[in-house]
Amino acid sequence: MNIINPATEEVIATVQVDSPTTLEEKYRRLLAAQQIWAQLPLGERINTLIRFAALLEAESASLAEILTAETGKPLQQAKNEIKGAISRINWLTTNAERYLSDELMQENGTVRECISYEPLGVIGNISAWNYPYLVGVNVFVPALIAGNGVLYKPSEYATLTGLEIDRLLKKAGVPDHVFQLAIGDGPVGKMMLDMELAGYFFTGSYHTGKYIYEQVSQKMVPCQLELGGKDPLYIANDISNIKAVAEATADGAFYNNGQSCCSVERIYVHQDIYDEYLDYFVQQVKAWTVGNPLDDDVYFGPLTRKLQINILEAQVNDALAKGAKLLCGGKAIDGKGFYFEPTILVDVTHDMLIMKEESFGPIIGIMSVRSDEEALSLMQDTDYGLTAGIYTDSEARAVSLLKKIDAGSAYWNCCDRVSAAVPWSGRKHSGIGSTLSHQGLRAFTKPKAWHLVGSK
Ligand code: NAD
């Protein structure tokens, strides 16, 4: 499989993909190694992952360069991602003892009722490319801490990063066969569905996730899905600093070229402040530089996948045909690399793809609304349910609206953010199950209920 640099379109590496035979071999080794790994004291496994975080930190400069070379992510954003992954590992390793240790729930005379958290076994992690460190860490770190073996399939667009993760986990002390890579694209992911893994943890698109869920349902094992979104924002008319909010929310929409699962994908602005907000928003987007992702001042690199250009152009054309207006951008940029102009569309409606389908690129639709009720009804008009955000000077106003929205994360005066302390979960077409937080630590375990009768 060729690895292509999306900024230059050059082949930067060629890797050997797995076959059913090599995967089977890896699986047999994983099965044996996992049994031994699970017997180690929890503290020892935690310490191994702490060493992994230290190695990420020590090698972050070269890891960021590799990430930029294969995904086109601007170097500064690649460094931020690695920093974010380290902070997530810190939270997970600091809190693992608390949530994975045996618990005495009730004691009555000689009767004790306890819970222990046993690993699932050898799990499969089929992953995405947009934040390979972050979405990877969400799964393989708590899975390893809990005593599982992991067959990790990096996305075909983040394979070199997957190889680095494998190298550093081994260097940190994860025994050789406890963590294995499945290298390749969709068909290799499909091969994993034919294996008897003890759980499937997927990050990627709704369509692939739905397919995986259907296949795995036959197996009666856990299947968690972290999928896409069409995340809405509402800017209410009482915000005191319109400029600051316009700038922060433009970043929420366009960071990582809009290729974040929790990117702001549609914005509703109260009509009282609409014009002013829009002016600042457009100014901010135009101020950001498009270019070589290795350059320090570049905010927009290329898209990671060439095919996404067709989806973005289809959304723009559909919107324009139905009466939308372009404030900037709208097409691919000529020349080498998968570049797309930062694009802002107004006069949009929910009859347009841009307001209904995930864009996953540097493109946003902005609508004026007359009231909180209208904003709420538009925000809820979606098949997805990953995040939703409201900017207002009143916490009560935000909370009362956010309670009515069926999304896994609710943001007041912020957007496009994830924290390891709280669950990361999607609803409806955005997924099933949670990673991060205590829930994300326990997601890789099966609880055993102990009913112990007798004196100790
Ligand atoms: P994708 O669905 O195209 O691919 C994801 C993974 O699935 C890849 O490793 C791919 O090789 C594999 N795959 C493809 N077809 C398969 C099949 N038939 N069987 C098994 N595996 C298969 O998604 P992507 O382009 O890598 O990622 C982008 C999507 O991921 C976006 O929709 C984004 O919103 C979503 N995402 C969600 C989160 C979240 O936390 N909710 C995080 C990151 C990305």
Describe the SSE topology.
Layout: E1 2-4, E2 11-14, H1 20-39, H2 42-58, H3 60-71, H4 75-100, E3 103-108, E4 111-119, E5 122-126, H5 132-145, E6 149-153, H6 159-172, E7 179-181, H7 186-193, E8 200-203, H8 206-216, E9 223-226, E10 231-235, H9 242-254, E11 264-270, H10 274-287, E12 289-290, E13 298-300, H11 308-321, E14 325-328, E15 343-346, E16 363-369, H12 372-380, E17 384-385, E18 387-391, H13 395-402, E19 409-412, E20 424-425, E21 427-428, E22 431-432, E23 434-435, H14 437-442, E24 445-453
Parallel strand pairs: 5-6, 5-8, 6-7, 8-9, 10-11, 10-18, 11-16, 12-13, 15-16, 18-19
Antiparallel strand pairs: 1-2, 3-4, 4-24, 9-22, 14-15, 17-21, 20-23
Helix pairs in contact: 2-4, 2-6, 3-4, 3-6, 4-5, 9-10
Keywords: Oxidoreductase
Pfam families: Aldedh
Organism: Olivibacter oleidegradans
